[in-house]
Design a protein that fits this description.
Helices cover 83% and strands 0% of the residues. With 237 residues, the chain is mostly helical.
Length: 237
């Protein structure tokens, strides 16, 4: 037992242990999601978050210490977002045919995401810093953190809100779209991309390739529009 404690103390001082823990947690989450038939509630990111949170709590590890290793995964968010240009290129003809609905849906979705969050926050009496933190919560993480920081918010808390938003969106999108009887994969994918960024996009790719491609389009366009919309909307409150 004494040897194990010494080994654990040594490992926790190296960033590699938390990078490894993050990857293992996600692999476990993905296997469990696959075993559950990719059911909406069996979201691999949600499972990984629960596993990692439990591990950090049991080992009394601070988020700062954990992030020293997890930052390597965080760095890959940018290239992964840029890589979504590939499915966008493959679906370029479909995008041209649906350009007007895409623009309308983008404006409606992005404005609703920002304004509804700020309106609720204002009604609850949140401070200006928390309002700035909340504004970009439906945007992909690399962009959301930059927006939050520039507006005077807390990027760390924004990251948490982004993850929560993405997980909720990925869980509810399939049953919600089925209940609304929306069958067009382009509409389903674009909606979840705008509302639930990368996590929702990953879910869309699991369900249908075209839905995934349009989710990536929605996520990318929403990131650009939110960067313009969030400062203006924050000024209203």
């Amino acid at each position: 037992m004494h040897d194990f404690t010494d080994i654990w103390s040594y490992l926790t001082e190296t960033p590699l242990i938390w990078l490894t823990a993050t990857l293992i947690a996600y692999l476990i989450g993905d296997r469990l999601a696959e075993a559950a038939g990719r059911a909406p509630l069996a979201n691999p990111v949600l499972i990984a978050v629960i596993l990692l949170a439990g591990l950090l709590w049991l080992t009394d590890t601070s988020y700062t210490q954990y992030f020293e290793g997890a930052q390597f995964v965080h760095f890959l968010l940018g290239p992964a977002t840029v890589a979504l240009a590939v499915p966008l290129w493959h679906q370029r003809r479909a995008v041209r045919r649906a350009l007007l609905p895409i623009v309308a849906a983008l404006l409606a979705g992005s404005a609703t995401a920002v304004l509804s969050a700020l309106a609720i926050g204002h009604a609850m009496g949140l401070t200006p810093q928390l309002m700035a933190t909340l504004a970009p919560k439906s945007t992909t993480a690399p962009v959301a953190l930059g927006i939050s920081e520039n507006l005077g918010g807390s990027p760390t808390l924004t990251a948490v809100l982004v993850i929560v938003t993405g997980i909720i969106g990925a869980i509810v999108v399939t049953p919600l779209m089925n209940a609304l009887r929306i069958r067009d994969w382009r509409a389903r994918g674009f909606a979840v991309g705008v509302a639930a960024h990368g996590i929702g996009t990953a879910r869309a790719f699991q369900v249908n390739p075209q839905a995934g491609a349009f989710a990536g389009i929605g996520m990318a366009l929403n990131a650009m529009l939110t960067a313009l919309l969030a400062p203006w909307a924050l000024g209203l409150f």
